[in-house]
Amino acid sequence: MNAYAKRLLWPVLILLALIAVNIVATGVDFIVPSVNDDGRLGGAFVNILRRSAPLLLIALGMTLVIATKGIDLSVGAVYAIGAAIACQTIIDAPDQTAGGLVLAAVALALAATAAIGAWNGVMVAHFGIQPIVATLVLMIAGRGIAQLVTGGQIPKVQDASPFTELGRGAFLTVPIPIWIAALVLTALALLTRRTALGMLLESVGGNPEASRLAGIRSRGITVLVYLVCGLCAGLAGLIGAANLGSADANNGGLWIELDAILAVVIGGTALLGGRFFLLGTAIGVVIIGTLEDTIINVGLSSQWQFTAKAVVVFAVALLQSPEFRGWVLRPLRRRPEAPAPAQAEEAAS
Amino acid sequence: MPDAAPVRMTGIVKDFTGVRALDGVDLALRPGEIHAVMGENGAGKSTLIKVLTGVHGHDAGEILLDGEPVRFSGPKAAQAAGISTVYQEVNLTENLSVAENLLAGREPRLGPFINFRAMRRRATELLDGIGVDLNVAAPLGAYSIAVQQLVAIARAVDIEAKVLILDEPTSSLDRDEVEVLLGVMRRLAADGTALVFISHFLDQVYAVADRMTVLRNGALVGEWATADLPQNALIGHMLGREAAALEQIERTAAAHHVADGEPLVEAVGLGRKGSIAPYDLTVRRGEVVGLAGLLGSGRTETARLIAGADRADSGSLRFAGRRVGGHNPRTAAARGIAFCPENRKTEGLVGDLTVAENMILAMQASRGWARSVPPARRDKLVAAFIDKLGIRPADPDMPVRNLSGGNQQKVLLARWMLVEPKLLILDEPTRGIDVGAKADIQRLVAELSADGMAVLFVSAELDEVTRLSDRIAVLRDRELIAVLEAEADLTSEHIVDTIVAGGREP
């Protein structure tokens, strides 16, 4: 638990710092939720959370994939496929407002994206293709698949369709996307930490050979994780499409895989695999979301967005690097140099 | 009077934080001579080479190069002074051409450009010089490891090496390739280069070495001309006969009991090409079978086939009376075969995970991810084994990488004891761990076998194998050459004699 808290320390501090900057710039209203006229929660921070929900879903799936020493570049394309399948199914039907239709469309989209995720997993686990290559294939081909689904058009769902509630609605005053993100976070946390899945994942990612010799079914676990990642990406696509009321095969979820990887790294999960931190990833996502507002709130033009994001990522990466901390802190506390770790080398020879 | 030896090391001492790795070692290298540095794992061969080439500094003693005391700042400086090293792993780039690999950093140039034609010509000359004919424009990766090894040697020779150090150059080569490499070595020696040859293949050493320096536990045993040192004397020096004689007294007759139990493991003609020749081996219930032999003799490979860690490509294996098909670590564990591999860090433990997680891993793997071991049961089991095996610190939530070697080994043992296997395979369980932990583990093996578990025990230490085993399978040059019954008068000398005789009646 100690290690867990240590990993979360920097992300939490950075998030608090960002929030503090916003409060100074725009007042305490930034963080305090307001109640809109229609009885829903609003306010700057709630909106950030609502907007961040798709990214959070994708980043959670990505966290599990990265824990196995893998990576999934196809999530942006899978997002577009999920959105395309749901929207196209709905507009093809005579009555877009039918509840059964919307449920069927959602189920179809999720089943398809889960299957795509499983495909990635099989490529990686059974055929030994490097994750970055295996998922690059679908990163490129996936948008083509989404275009085929929509016939090259952008399907627009009627505002009256219950489907749009997934992105725009609220339950108990809280926006639906926040509910979904929170439920998925909770479900994945329970799935990985209440069962042995989390530990076996960390074992497979931390030392594949030792895991094999311990008799772990690492292939099945790897496929499962990619499947969950695809499912999360599909769900994110549904929320994004419901919010817009349309599915854009070319631009829906564009570059979201990179933001997701950033969020995972900010959250303290190493790209080398092994230990993973779902809550850290969630904080990373909120940092990225808050950052976008911060730039506007401190009076910079929106063109600063990308540069500012890069600076924050750079800062987090440096703060998490033991080498950098040692380098910065060395002048502060004079200590005798530790002896060189020559012994380990000797034992290995 | 000029010293005949261009390189002379005297009284070298090297300490690693409290452990003395080298204690007063001398080494003299003469032009035109192939000098073998011999010793078992941990004897200090690699450390000695690393001190010579400046990878490690030395704490006492002197290195003379042509009579001048030197202290190299690193391998580059040593190379500049004419001391080149070729390592076991080829340190070249597979996707560059042979010529580029040979001359990287010293390419013939035309102004800012590389003169490829001159480079290919120079590379061909170099390879001719050691009697090798290759297409120098082809990528290095197109050639076998043996040829890559030769290219590495040619590269080292081109740097005008006065001294060429070959550290286990033959361990991944087959018989014919070894012959070529040994031929190149003789040729270089004839040209006046001083060679250092490190190898655990005795036949090869005897085929080329003019002189031998033997180390044991970091200390110099002596230097001999090869002609004056018969093989059994060499093995005796490497293993330390006097130590073996001492252990003979300690041997407890109680540990040995006639195992007339039914056969648990029956391997017939089990083998894997390039790894271990087909062998027959039986392990009975309640029996400890030791695997003895020098480093590289095939001890580990023999054990790994039975463990399912490697796939056999010949022969058959029966376990508990049933034919074993589709053997892999998972099905092996399901049958009741547990395997603690030789290299704890890379093949055994998951460093990031805690002591408790590492212990529970095999049990959890057999249950699948969905059926988690209940936390209460897990905590109880983990606490029980931490207590039983005396694991320190007794903190189940400590990342296992922070533990000492002996405690790590105990965690690995606990992982498999938890699932109560029928057969426990231990590959070098006592290597590199402190004396206390070693004694604990030996005692544990005796206890487990007394309770009816079969144990297959691999160790480099002959006295340990002799003390613990009911029967000992002896290996040499990747072949199982004899199975000895551990009667009361069996000593490690018998094993040494068997290794020397190569399975023929000693």
Automatic annotation (TrEMBL), chain A:
Protein name: Monosaccharide ABC transporter membrane protein, CUT2 family
Gene Ontology molecular function, alphabetical: transmembrane transporter activity
Source species of the chain: Glycomyces sambucus
GO cellular component: plasma membrane
Entry membrane topology: Multi-pass membrane protein
Record bears the keyword Flavoprotein: no
Transmembrane segments: 12-32, 44-66, 73-91, 97-119, 131-150, 170-191, 221-242, 254-272
Upper taxonomic lineage: Bacteria, Bacillati, Actinomycetota, Actinomycetes, Glycomycetales
Main subcellular location of this protein, as a coarse class: membrane
KW Cell inner membrane (keyword) present: no
Key words, A-Z: Cell membrane, Membrane, Transmembrane, Transmembrane helix
Record's subcellular location: Cell membrane
InterPro entries: ABC_transp_permease
TrEMBL record, chain B:
InterPro entries with a match to the protein in the record: AAA+_ATPase, ABC_carbohydrate_import_ATPase, ABC_transporter-like_ATP-bd, ABC_transporter-like_CS, P-loop_NTPase
Keywords linked to the UniProt accession: ATP-binding, Nucleotide-binding, Repeat, Sugar transport, Transport
Keyword Repeat in record: yes
Signal peptide, first to last residue: none
Entry GO MF terms: ATP binding; ATP hydrolysis activity
Cited SUPFAM superfamilies: P-loop containing nucleoside triphosphate hydrolases
Record-annotated ABC transporter domain positions: 7-242, 259-502
Top-rank taxon: Bacteria
Short name of any one Pfam family annotated for the protein: ABC_tran
Record-linked CDD domains: ABC_Carb_Monos_I, ABC_Carb_Monos_II
Protein name: Simple sugar transport system ATP-binding protein
